[in-house]
Design a protein that fits this description.
Helix content of chain A: 40-55%
Shape of chain A: globular
Number of domains of chain A: 1
Oligomer: homodimer
CATH superfamily of chain A: Aldolase class I
CATH class of chain A: Alpha Beta
Largest sheet of chain A: 8 strands, parallel
Number of helices of chain A: 13
């Protein structure tokens, strides 16, 4: 049996992902309501909004109002997504937003081309410019991420060696620019990973960069999400992205096939039960998941919000046993 | 990294579980349609109906018609559930039904009392009578199963030693009656298991009975189902109960909290991708899952039926690469 880490950190991405994908408009106040509830669960890092073009992402036309409106709390890092300097400027102008820079690549040049109209070589230049932009604003660049790290819908299977090769190229910018990347984020963007391949890719990346922390960003497209988290735990990975209630994934009517991140409270449940600390209050988080469902107005994929935590059942069982 | 088994067997329970829990009536012909489709996927064992009191389980009032109507196929064992001699007699009277006897217990006397109005001691007597009934009809008694093997909603956590203790009592009937149990089925009846505790219970049972095959029957009440299957694979367990599309579990409107078996095609996907043979055609099975959803008329929990298999994407990627 493997040794699991004694503690993990969870980076909540539900609000940003979830409110982006929903077809109907969601009131700003309700977005803030969910963020405020999440802030009280013990989660330490929450992505709260997207500073993007409202013409392309109408769900985040109210990003400024949301960011202005939610309650800050000591020890909780609220951050936002941006895709260009304009977005970054908005984040800088906002109060109390946790700022860090990241650079990124993919394993698949086809996927990169479809997404950003770049090739690998061109992307290095773009990332170099990003770093310069962050440095100009005094923002530390601490994270490198790689998409389609397990497979690509256009290029098929991705060998672990290719993940290392592309990260090698990206992390070449570290020495060149003097940044200090401490987290490598491996994203299963389109749901190709299984527990076995999670272990293979994590192993290959850790062998090459033993001092960097690995983060897993796992989409639950084909039902392996939570098993992939467990495989990550078995490899000692202690940092996961996830979404409350499975927000952002909408496997039901009208969105068939689109699945988001693995569900935060399902991870917290599994960890709690296995003695892996998350610092998150599961029952409070389950309430957030139910709130998220109420806000979007349809079922979301999370399971433990329906099954319920075990703590109340345990308390009743103990009371019963003491009474008998 | 663990060695996974090279091959597993899956016992499909979707039709029996699913058509029992649905609130609305389902046409007999449609039940037969799903069973016939499942029979062509490569599944070797399918539970097709329940011979129970139609007053208590109206969904199976047409069990005789379903059993008469589905197509038999060489190499596929179709079987039915019964709970008493009357049900057994109906199964004996039916053509080409795979017959085997099983004995059962639970870890929790409270749960047993609520379910069957028996205590542990009384249950041994009932199981002894069951064995006599099977022996009278020349039916081999080959399976012993234990419910709430990881936890009970009334008694709380169940230590692995208690699972062994209760199985010890049940398997005492082997020597006494001359039966030969080859499968021990461990059921997570109410969704308390996690990968860690799956390993602990499987380890404890295997240490005590190294020559018996272990079967896992895992309900996905709290989202750990597929991770628990993976933990079973890591322990070398090569026999799983499951339900196509997650039939029987209905975590959506009207059935909140009721979750059934882990989803068959999600297990097959994970196994296929990890090189663990199942003998099942994933794409044919995905069609069955979609058919099941069409038959019940609402969304079911299975994931890979929405995300899709990877084989077509792989074929396209190879064609693209060859063309380039």
């Amino acid at each position: 049996m493997s040794d699991l880490p004694s503690r993990i950190d969870i980076q909540e991405e539900g609000p940003r992902e979830g409110f982006q994908i929903e077809p109907g408009p969601i009131a700003t106040a309700r977005k803030i309501e969910l963020i405020d509830a999440l802030t009280e669960t013990g989660l330490k890092k929450i992505q709260v909004a997207s500073y993007v073009n409202p013409k392309r992402v109408p769900g985040w036309a109210d990003a400024d109002e949301v960011v202005k409106g939610f309650k800050r709390k000591e020890g909780v890092a609220h951050h936002v997504l941006w895709l260009n300097e304009k977005g970054l400027q908005r984040a800088i102008a906002a109060d109390d937003i946790y700022m860090f820079g990241s650079i990124s690549t993919t394993t698949s040049e086809t996927f990169m081309g479809m997404n950003t109209n770049r090739g690998f070589k061109e992307n290095v230049g773009v990332q170099r410019n990003q770093i310069a932009m962050y440095q100009e604003h005094g923002i530390p660049v601490t994270r490198a991420s790689i998409m389609t790290a397990w497979g690509c819908n256009f290029e098929g299977d991705i060998p672990p060696a290719r993940v290392v090769e592309r990260l090698e190229e990206l992390l070449g910018l570290e020495a060149e620019t003097g940044i200090d990347i401490d987290i490598i984020s491996l994203a299963d963007t389109v749901g190709w990973a299984t527990p076995k391949s999670v272990k293979e890719v994590v192993g290959a990346v850790r062998n090459r960069w033993p001092d960097k922390r690995i983060c897993l960003h796992l989409h639950d497209t084909r039902g392996c999400g939570i098993a992939n988290v467990y495989a990550g735990l078995e490899m000692g990975v202690d940092l996961y992205d996830s979404s409350v209630a499975g927000l952002g994934g909408c496997p039901f009517a009208g969105h068939k096939g689109a699945a988001g991140n693995v569900t935060t409270e399902d991870i917290v449940f599994m960890c709690d039960e296995m003695g892996v600390e998350t610092g998150v209050d599961l029952e409070a988080l389950i309430e957030c998941a139910r709130l998220a469902e109420d806000i979007v107005g349809h079922d979301l994929p999370g399971k433990v919000m329906r099954g319920g935590a075990l703590s109340a059942l345990r308390r009743d069982a103990k009371a019963q046993a003491a009474h008998a």
